[in-house]
Amino acid sequence: MSSVAIVRSQVERRIPGALTLYERPVPEVFSTGIQAIDCEIGGVPKGALAQICAPVGITAGKTSLLLSLLAQVTGKEQFCAVVDASDSFDPESADAVGVCLSRLLWVRCIQRGMKAVEQAFKSADILIQSGGFGVIAIDLGNADERLIRKIPLTTWFRFARVMEALPTALVILLPYSAAQSCAALTLKLGASAQWSRADAVSHTRLISSVEFNVEVGRTRTKKPVQSARNNFTVRPQWA
Length: 239
Prior knowledge:
- The chain is an alpha/beta fold.
- The chain has 7 helices and 10 strands.
- It has helices at residues 3-14, 35-41, 62-75, 91-96, 114-130, 145-148, 153-163; strands spanning 29-30, 44-45, 48-53, 79-84, 104-108, 133-139, 169-174, 185-195, 207-219, 228-234.
- Strand 9 (207-219) and strand 10 (228-234) form a beta hairpin.
């Protein structure tokens, strides 16, 4: 017997399974309702933290993606919660895309700045401990990057570990990828708009459609990808 095999047998005799490779099970997922994304990632994983990232101040599709996900989950008679750190959630828009508002809890943070970020995490912590939600979303998408960078890495680790024991998806909207390896799924969004022809009378132009670009930065739901990209298009109601 080789020296490596001897050492291995001695270690495993004292600590069973110490050298056994741990394989993380592939989590169940919630469909986002957007075929281009679901085909690429399979869906948003349950029992995990997912982050949807887009720079502040641009239309990148993060709200459209979140509302589509909420519509899918509430449509299957599961309850969801949105922790709104910047008071930007629009119930009318959610209702228009099919979100069942009677199954949605909207938590509005009344603080501003870093206090709003802290309040959002405290609210999410209470909801996670309460249980009963299919999706819990924390909207920090409009928060200043300097505030997000103040969130300790231990906070991301704690939330990621707590979620592993639950059948719930924790989805966080962020201006950049802050959760790093704590996230089971990272989506980075961008967008480009298509404009209509100028009106002959008023010379105005309207957005006819918006193409959203999705980059998969990290996923555990399928085979690892290397910055896979995909697109989906949304048309305004007036188009």
